[in-house]
Design the sequence.
């Protein structure tokens, strides 16, 4: 008791108790030390760089996580089985077709190792999300073949098909594409995947699929159902708002799931109970998905309308971000925005120009962004 009293007295004398009393327990845990010491806190950074869901996770996912805390003393076997079965049922597959990972990034890394080993050739559009190819090139000595995007900043499927050789171990397709946000129509993409799957493995990264108006019609999961040499990748990090829990999954033939699983460091227990519970609840909460899609579309269309109004080039976006040309902005554009507590994606050079990926935030955040861009725009 004396220890508790002396600690409280010390806090009161230092002013920390008064500062902390104004905060909830969660806020106290996250509050900057400067604020607790009585110094003004820096304005909250508005992150429009990670393609995260600013409205997530859903209330049902939060409730599921809280309920799952009571099971954190147990290994997650039952939760793993339940989530794999839930995903499999939704996709018309068996649990043996489902591989869980610590975000889709772990599965991309496993695929980079598995298909890049021994100097295998990996083909992708460029730019696209680079993790699989980078990991394969750096850790498995793979040969990464980059196929430039077309004039609309979309995958050039004919050029990608021409790049495939007998040495090609895997073709990577990101649809919608990160960082450009462009989407391939389902019919030509399905035809491409079917043709390429007769020659090599095709991995279709559908991290942003749920942002499309009809995700099921645009997914290549039906190719997995028909036994073709295709891997489909999904994540709970984007529309489901669970980026901090690190959970994703792949749909693939059972032999492919086993092949990738053997390379995983965490074996089958790499995911925690709260994350698995949140994922189950999120998959069942499709109203939240639809709401997030509506809010994101409204924010994306508002940003694109503003960009068009000011004659600022941008790619036709279909996800929760917009790829914006920086030709009307100073070279210091990202740093200038940081000075205004706004963080956007890094500068990338595409087709001879500089571009930045900007995630969709809340309406108030987007207003702050466009106001800052208006001030930085060069005539």
Sequence:
């Amino acid at each position: 008791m004396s220890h508790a009293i002396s600690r409280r007295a010390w806090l009161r004398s230092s002013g920390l108790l008064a500062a902390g009393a104004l905060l909830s327990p969660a806020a106290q845990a996250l509050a900057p030390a400067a604020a607790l010491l009585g110094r003004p806190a820096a304005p909250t950074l508005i992150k429009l760089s990670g393609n995260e869901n600013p409205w997530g996770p859903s209330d049902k996912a939060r409730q599921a996580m809280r309920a799952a805390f009571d099971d954190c003393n147990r290994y997650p076997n039952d939760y793993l089985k339940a989530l794999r079965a839930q995903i499999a049922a939704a996709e018309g597959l068996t649990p043996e077709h489902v591989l869980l990972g610590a975000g889709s990034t772990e599965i991309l890394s496993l695929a980079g190792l598995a298909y890049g080993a021994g100097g295998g050739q990996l083909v992708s559009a460029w730019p696209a999300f680079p993790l699989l190819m980078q990991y394969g090139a750096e850790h498995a000595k793979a040969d990464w073949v980059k196929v430039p995007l077309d004039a609309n900043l979309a995958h050039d499927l004919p050029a990608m098909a021409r790049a495939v050789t007998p040495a090609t171990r895997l073709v990577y397709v990101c649809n919608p594409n990160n960082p450009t946000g462009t989407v391939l129509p389902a019919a030509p993409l399905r035809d491409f995947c079917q043709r390429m799957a007769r020659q090599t493995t095709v991995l279709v990264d559908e991290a942003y699929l749920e942002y499309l108006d009809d995700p099921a019609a645009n997914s290549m999961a039906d190719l997995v159902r028909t036994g073709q040499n295709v891997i489909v990748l999904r994540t709970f990090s984007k529309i489901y708002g669970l980026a901090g829990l690190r959970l994703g999954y792949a749909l693939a033939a059972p032999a492919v799931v086993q092949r990738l699983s053997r390379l995983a460091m965490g074996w089958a227990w790499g995911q925690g109970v709260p994350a698995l519970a949140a994922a189950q609840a999120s998959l069942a909460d499709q109203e939240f998905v639809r709401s997030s899609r509506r809010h994101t579309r409204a924010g994306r269309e508002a940003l694109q309308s503003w960009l068009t109004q000011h004659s600022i080039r941008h790619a036709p976006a279909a996800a929760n971000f917009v790829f914006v040309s920086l030709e009307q902005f100073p070279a210091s554009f990202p740093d200038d925005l940081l000075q205004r507590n706004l963080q956007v994606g890094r500068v990338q050079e595409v087709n001879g120009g500089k571009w930045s990926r900007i995630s969709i935030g809340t309406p108030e955040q987007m207003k702050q962004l466009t106001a800052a861009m208006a001030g930085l725009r060069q005539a």
Observations:
- The radius of gyration is 23 Å.
- Confidence is low (pLDDT under 50) at residues 1-37.
